[in-house]
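ARCHIVE RECORD
Type: protein–small molecule complex
Small molecule: iron/sulfur cluster
Source of inputs: curated submission
Record status: active
Notes field left blank by submitter.
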Amino acid sequence: MKDTAPSLTSVKPAGRKFTGTDRRAPLRGGLQGCGEYGAGQTAGRFYPIACVALEVTQRCNLDCTLCYLSDRAEMTYDPPLSVLFARLATIHSHYGPGVSVQLTGGDPTLRKVEDLETLCREIKRLGMRSCLMTNGIRASRAFLIRLAAAGLDDVAFHVDMTQERKGFASEAELNTVRRAYIRRTRGLGLRVLFNTTVFGDNFDELPSLARFLRDRPEVAFVSFQMQADTGRGLLRERPDAITQDSVIRAIEAGYETPMHFDTASVGHSKCNRYASVVTAGGRAVSVLSAKQLTHKVMAALEQADESADGHIDIRDSVRRLVRRNPLLALRAGVHLLGRVLRLGSGLLRGPVRRQSVFIHNFMAADALEEDRCASCVFMVATANGPLSMCVHNAQRDQHLATPERIDGPTGPSWWNAAVPRLSGGPDLPDLNDPALAPLKRLKGQMRALRRTQKDAS
Ligand code: SF4
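STRUCTURE (tokenized, with ligand):
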């Protein structure tokens, strides 16, 4: 068990309250401060944050061997909609319209579908994007149809061997689940993402899994998340064999092409690596093969940007770029066409699609690096404001226990995760009270420990 998480104030979050006119400035400053704001940096240049997680429940219908939730998650109450609306307003005031809001948990599908519909509508009303982050077990087609109708933009399915789904002994066998999930989304207009935790027991399967995902034209975004020693999961330290470089090599082996993960950055290079490919008929070609040209185009897009709300409007900026610098636009177009033509016979076998590939390197809870936390591009909306996901993972119970003030039409009320509904005063039960943690409501490490103690007594 970890009891060494830093205090709430020991690591400065990147989600400082926005007070100026340039919403990208705080993240840009964080990245500049640690030497990560080079010519290929997209964060703080084109957007103020990559995404913000809105945790709509701490409950989950799985108990993964690697899980960022806390052992106490199952004894929390779900935040009322008024709390979630207040957090959405905070996200909007920090980062403006255009930001991607991840409806996550726990598994968000454990909430009533009506609640999720309401949240999707509110996110749309605020001009932000919504993404449902789910293990897919309860995300039936009927469920997804309702959310798509309510304005859901993206669905991200988490499927891998850490989930210990019964009847599946390998990532290859789990492809049956992945195929079924893709079928559920057909024709709904949702952008489909897949998340995979990379850990010791599936690392050897990474190339074949990457190839499977490469060959799914319906999948727009693939994220590989490296094992991290954080949260309640039973597995802890990452094996030495799993590094950013070894994961890149395994993915490139699967995609059967160099992918140029060093051309464009999304935040700190120790946290995130990004590649973009075009695919067709079982082949993939990297789009970012010309580093200098990519950086020139990025600089020109930045100059052409006239957006006032913090998120660059890429279409508008491209139109302006074509008008102001037609030669550069032509060079970029010719480059892109050349890359597509390299798909060769694949062009005869299937549609051309673009796919983003992401490697995410969460930090261990007891080894947070201050510069990475201060330039974090993935935030969580908490009672204490937006916070770096790694910091939040290290401090979950403290944030869940914090009384959050909600101002309503009849005056203020308070909520924390130890109570089911808003209360008239801030004097709320302490979520970390051991009496609230009976064995049957624990998951992860604490349950394993209690079981061992019980068996020994
Ligand atoms: S969540 Fe952690 S690993 Fe990801 S960008 Fe933020 S600090 Fe880096």
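CURATOR ANNOTATION: Residues 267-268, 271-272, 360-363, 372-373, 376-378, 388-390 surround iron/sulfur cluster (CB under 6 Å).
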